[in-house]
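Field notebook, page 157. I keep forgetting to write these up properly, so this time I am using the form the group agreed on. The chain and the ligand, methionine sulfoxide, are recorded exactly as supplied. Prediction of the bound pose follows.
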Amino acid sequence: MHEITEYSNDHALFLAQLKALIEDEPDFLANMANMASLIYHTFDRLNWSGFYLLKDDQLVLGPFMGKPACTRIRLKDGVCGKAARTREVQNIVDVHAFEGHIACDSASNSELVIPIVEDDRLIGVLDIDSVDFGRFGPLDQSTMIEAVNILIKRKKG
Ligand code: SME
């Protein structure tokens, strides 16, 4: 049994830095790229952070930091597919115990996936992987939901 660990990264500072990075830039692709990098470099023990965008009923790889990853995920597959299908956050303490988990990087042991919804339309997911089991606590989860909200708000102008 793996417990969720709370890490002491500065979540408030992360959100402030994200706002500062994207407030003057309207381009969604550029903002996703910087957000993926900021997450990767702010929080400990991550091995991947990035986006998959919904295109023709598949999730297609978007901007990310980390090792190369699978380019397409069907909605019926993986943690990302489940988050997209259900539009519910997936906080997976042990990915090896998740049936259908797609192991892009064998180093991943826990995963947090946030659905990205704009005007009631799913446009993709934010996916974050960690080498630790139970890496993502309630504060990580609420912070990433807030970060996605900031990104979407900026996209809409
Ligand atoms: N593990 C994900 C696939 C994407 S990679 O982690 C970057 C999944 O099961 O959907």
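OBSERVATIONS:
- Strands lie at 46-55, 58-66, 72-74, 90-92, 110-118, 121-130.
- Helices lie at 11-22, 28-42, 78-86, 138-155.
FOLLOW-UP: compare against the apo run.
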